[in-house]
């Protein structure tokens, strides 16, 4: 499990640790870790550090200090290190002295030829969009040169992943003490590249943001035992599809059949299409351990969704089912509710513009969870799973190609199946998003980065399932 912590928590842990250590010790740990990653990168690319041209973008705070001290270490190994300050009057004095003593130099402009750029403009002290001097330096990074960000890419909000205006795009981010949420959540996550965590000895409380990994998912997946039958493994009911959108029903059933429940029951006007594709589906009302309500329902079906919400079983509400949901009604439910909106649906549920959800995904997901008393899976390039009180889960396996028609229907069937198999709302949501993302990668097969179809994602779920168990 990867865990991430807010700036406030990281700062508190740093204060506590700094009080017990000699002055500057933490920054030296950070700089040593940063220099080690730069050394590995340079060695991989050019065989050695000696003679490499390294450019440091140095901000006015301790983030710049980390870069300057790391630059001094590289200069001592024979690299030609040039620091370009954001503000020449405000540079970390100790870091500057160390760099100059090691043979580094200062420049006013970013040199056009470089083997590596180190972004030490801003770290967790950055606020709002990059000011003009910082934006100008970020804009001068020569194309094609690898960029290592110090702690986080400058311009990314550490707590939320939000980016207001220009920001640095890093190939590698070396972060200190703990992941920050902005490294796991888009748009920040996609600017961070590969993230290396340097342990500087912080002692941290339970996590506020989590990202599952293979082993976490494997431990949560349902596994039939010798005594389980289809009813004990759970039956998931699917209320989906309409004459206009029969495909949504087929895709939700496809996701559900591969999600670990013992059986899938379909209710709605697309039974013929469902049976034609999946003859193993049970048709018509009956007992279930969880419901999925909403994919492809079309207009005027709110009453059917409300009837399911009145039952004392877990209910996942998606797509058309999300229209006009009553927060009061949801909050009084005793069984779990899982809502799976995309940004537009989340905006409607929160009665805010879509842009404000896109720009502040973490806070939107948490606000929805509070307002509706539900677990909320906010779909997007980094899907988030928020529930009242617990940590927010960030899905690390997503791919932009999942933004394709019907892919959400597969996801809701899959998550509903996991609910029926007994997983909690947050676990079902997080495991479903994880498998769904992995399956999309498998669906692309030998042509990664190419378009995929929703039914291919459903068909690739067994491979995703197998992959998490086999590592
Ligand atoms: N604490 C520790 O123990 C350790 C900390 N470590 C390192 O310290 C980093 C945090 O350092 P930090 O607190 O000095 O803040 P930092 O990110 O350098 O930026 C502050 C400066 O930026 C400026 N500024 C702000 N916003 C701006 C904007 N939008 N555009 C332009 N400028 C902006 C702001 O200006 P001001 O608002 O004061 O005018 C201020 O001068 C942390 O990320 C990690 O790398 C490690 O060494 C491990 C040990
Ligand atoms: K930085």
Structural features, described:
Homotetramer. Its EC number is 4.2.1.136, 5.1.99.6. GO terms for molecular function: ADP-dependent NAD(P)H-hydrate dehydratase activity; ATP binding; metal ion binding; NAD(P)HX epimerase activity. The protein is an alpha/beta fold and 471 residues long. It is 39% helix and 15% strand. It has an eleven-stranded mixed beta sheet, sandwiched between helices. A hairpin with a 5-residue loop joins strand 17 and strand 18. The radius of gyration is 25 Å and the shape is elongated. The relative contact order is 0.10. The mean pLDDT is 95. The protein binds ligand NPW and potassium ion (K). Ligand NPW binds next to helix 1, helix 2 and helix 3.
Write a brief caption for the model.
Helix content is 39%, strand content 15%. With 471 residues, it is α/β, with parallel strands linked by helices.
Notable characteristics:
471 residues; alpha/beta; seven-stranded parallel β-sheet; 18 helices; 39% helix; binds ligand NPW; binds potassium ion
The helix-and-strand class reads: alpha/beta
Q: Major β-sheet, in short?
A: 11 strands, mixed
How many beta strands in the DSSP annotation? 18
Distinct bound molecules: ligand NPW, potassium ion
Q: Helical element count? A: 18
Classify the oligomer.
single chain
Radius of gyration: 25 Å
Uncertain runs: none
**Overall residue-averaged pLDDT value:** 95
Strands in their spatial order, largest beta sheet: 1-9-18-17-16-15-14-13-10-11-12
